[in-house]
Amino acid sequence: MPELPEVETVARDLRESLPGRTITGVTVRWPRTIACPPPDEFRQAIAGRRVTSVGRRGKYVVLGLDRGYLLIHLKMSGRLYVTPAGQAADRHEHTIFDLDDGQQLRFQDVRKFGRVYLVDDVEQVTGNLGPEPLADDFTLVTFRRRLERRSGRLKSLLLNQFFLAGLGNIYADEALFQAGLHPLRPAGSLTPAEQERLYNAIRGVLRQAVANRGTTLGDGGYVDARGEAGQHQEQIMVYGRTGKSCLRCGTPIERLVVGGRSSHFCPRCQKDPAGV
DNA sequence: AAAGCACCCTGTACGC
DNA sequence: TGCGTACAGGGTGCTT
């Protein structure tokens, strides 16, 4: 499941081959993948545009074009890669961009949740996203201010992209474990020391995961734009480890559903908030 | 503001 | 072995 570190890795990979390439055409095999503009218009509009940059905002891959932007959200199972046009197409490659060098940028997405946006301005899609957790201007003070205004549970808040952009289920659970905080803890109830622990945990986990080129769990899991698995699964402490021993204290990891999403945590390292 | 839930999808895991 | 069913998950939108 691509989250910030995985999307960042894909963007870095694509940056090696896409800038300077012109998109000569596109094949859309699952029109719902195209979020905007409408698929027919999209086909017309994308042809002839040149890629000038490759970046990331939250979990979106952002391709800067000579005019406008192409944003791609991988959601659960999306994969992006560049391959020679002659390469046989997989049945889950729903959108295929032809490039002017005989290659293709292919968007494969088994579960079809992923979306592609062609817009004039990045903000049209990402305008309401929260801060970038690894940006220099995302300071402890900024984080505190945002946290203190909230009364919901920590886990739900960390998954809220309008609160903070880029965390998904894996890194939210890992960050809470690193910070020693229970997923149900009310966000506004943290002490200054706990706020700082959480801030450092979020940034630390994400930085390490980027350095490890992301987390790949199981078959069909995330792969980068080269088709290779990440390495961060070796460092995972709680996510998906229900019933297994906590790697810090040995207590069995527990699972809880919060906001419809599973949460994995160590009941000893992450103490229950009072009254829950 | 926040919580709960259905929905979008399909591969996979699991029970019988 | 094979079938049916539950489940996973990011994000949106609706209801309470």
Description:
The chain has 276 residues and is an alpha+beta fold. It contains seven helices and eleven strands. The strands form two sheets. Strands 2-9-5-4-3-1-7-8-6 form a nine-stranded mixed beta sheet. β7 (93-99) and β8 (103-109) form a beta hairpin. The radius of gyration is 20 Å and the shape is elongated. The structure holds a DNA duplex (16 and 16 nucleotides).
Total strands: the figure is 11
> Termini, distance in Å?
30 Å
Mean pLDDT level:
91
Strand order across the biggest sheet?
A: 2-9-5-4-3-1-7-8-6
- Give me the secondary-structure category: alpha+beta
**Overall spatial form:** elongated
What is the rounded Rg?
20 Å
Low-confidence stretches: none
So how many helices? 7
Order of helices and strands: HEEHEEEEEEEHHHHHEE
Q: Give the biggest sheet.
A: 9 strands, mixed
- Portion in strands: 15-25%
Classify the helix fraction into a percent range: 25-40%
Short account of what is shown:
The chain has 276 residues and is an alpha+beta fold. The chain has helices at residues 4-15, 39-46, 123-126, 140-148, 154-159, 169-179, 192-211, and strands at residues 22-28, 34-36, 49-57, 60-65, 69-73, 78-84, 93-99, 103-109, 115-119, 254-258, 261-265.
